[in-house]
Design a protein that fits this description.
By secondary structure, the protein is of the alpha+beta class. Helices cover 72% and strands 8% of the residues.
Length: 301
C-alpha cells in the first residue's frame, strides 16, 4: 500500500510539473476515445437501421389484368413451396387503388386518374431476407409467372428491396473502414503525446532515478510512477470522453429520434455501458503502452 501511495504521489507531481504537455496528452486521449465512442454508437444505430430494413424486405409480383384466377392461385401455391417464403397474399386492383388512396396526401390525384392503372399483385413475405434474390430468381424463371406477369419481361414485374439493402451495407462497410483508419491514426497520436509526456517526466527526475539505482531500488519501483502517470492521463481522458458521449446521448439523441421517428435510432442502455467499459479499458491500455514505450527508450532499467 505504501508503494502505491508513493507511485500516486510521484505521478501527481509529474502531472503538475509538466502541466501543458500533460493537458495535451489528456486532450488527445479524450478526443481519440470520443471519436471512437461516437463511431461505435453510430455503427450500432446504422446496424439497427440496416437490420430493420432487411427484416422488411419482401417481394411483390405484379400480374396482368388478363391473368385468370386459376393461374394466379397456381402461382401462389408454387411460391408457397419455395424455400424461404413465409407467407403469400394477393392484392386485387381495387385493393391496390384503395391502398394508394390511403397513402396519398392528395386525394385529387386518385380522382384524376380516370380509371385504375394499378395492377394486381402477389405479395411474398420471407422467413429469411437473405434469400430474397434466390426466391425472386425462382419466381422469375417460372413459366407460369411469365404467362401472368404484367410486363413482357418477367423480371420487370418483380419488385423487392434487396438492392437498397445491399447499397446500405456497402455504405456501412465504407464507413467502417474509414472509422478504423481514423481510430488507428488517433491512437497513434495519443501514444506519441503520452510518450513525450513520460519522457519529460523521466528527464525531470533523472537525478532522483540515478540515486534510486544507487540505493538498490528495483526496476519495478522505478517504473511504477511513470506507468501510473500514463494510466492517470488515460483514465481522465476516458472519463471525459464518456461524459461527452453521455451528454450527446441526453441532449442530441432525443432530437434525432424525434426527427427520425420512423427509423430505429434507439441504442439500449446496456450497449452504452459496454461502450463506456471498452473506452475505459482502451484508454488505460493506450496510457500504459505509451508509458512503457517511453520507459523502454529513455529509462534504461
Amino acid at each position: 500500500m505504501s508503494s502505491f501511495a508513493y507511485f500516486l504521489k510521484q505521478s501527481l507531481q509529474g502531472f503538475v510539473r509538466n502541466l501543458s504537455t500533460t493537458l495535451g496528452s489528456i486532450i488527445t486521449i479524450f478526443l481519440s476515445l470520443l471519436i471512437i465512442g461516437v463511431f461505435m454508437v453510430g455503427a450500432t444505430i446504422i446496424g439497427n437501421i440496416a437490420q430493420s430494413i432487411e427484416n422488411e424486405v419482401s417481394i411483390t409480383a405484379y400480374v396482368s389484368d388478363d391473368a385468370s384466377d386459376s393461374d394466379i392461385q397456381k402461382m401462389e401455391t408454387y411460391i408457397e413451396g419455395i424455400t424461404g417464403v413465409s407467407s403469400v397474399s394477393f392484392t386485387t386492383k381495387e385493393e391496390a387503388l384503395e391502398n394508394f388512396r390511403e397513402m396519398s396526401s392528395n386525394a385529387d390525384i386518385v380522382d384524376e386518374l380516370g380509371g385504375n392503372p394499378l395492377p394486381a399483385s402477389i405479395n411474398i413475405e420471407l422467413s429469411d431476407p437473405q434469400l430474397v434474390t434466390q426466391v425472386a430468381s425462382e419466381i422469375e424463371e417460372s413459366d407460369l409467372f411469365a404467362k401472368i406477369a404484367d410486363e413482357e419481361n418477367p423480371a420487370d414485374s418483380l419488385k423487392y428491396g434487396q438492392r437498397t439493402v445491399e447499397r446500405l451495407f456497402s455504405v456501412i462497410n465504407y464507413v467502417r473502414y474509414i472509422g478504423i483508419a481514423l481510430i488507428v491514426l488517433l491512437v497513434f497520436i495519443a501514444l506519441v503525446f503520452i510518450n513525450n509526456t513520460i519522457r519529460l517526466a523521466i528527464m525531470a527526475r533523472r537525478k532522483e532515478i540515478a540515486i534510486m539505482r544507487l540505493v538498490g531500488a528495483s526496476n519495478g519501483f522505478i517504473r511504477g510512477p511513470f506507468l501510473m502517470e500514463g494510466a492517470l492521463h488515460a483514465i481522465i481522458g476516458a472519463l471525459l470522453a464518456i461524459l461527452a458521449i453521455q451528454l450527446i446521448r441526453m441532449l442530441a439523441l432525443p432530437q434525432l429520434q424525434g426527427s427520425l421517428a420512423f427509423l430505429p435510432v434507439e441504442v439500449s442502455g446496456t450497449t452504452y455501458l459496454v461502450i463506456y467499459g471498452l473506452l475505459l479499458v482502451a484508454g488505460i491500455i493506450v496510457g500504459l503502452l505509451g508509458s512503457a514505450v517511453a520507459m523502454r527508450r529513455y529509462l534504461k532499467v
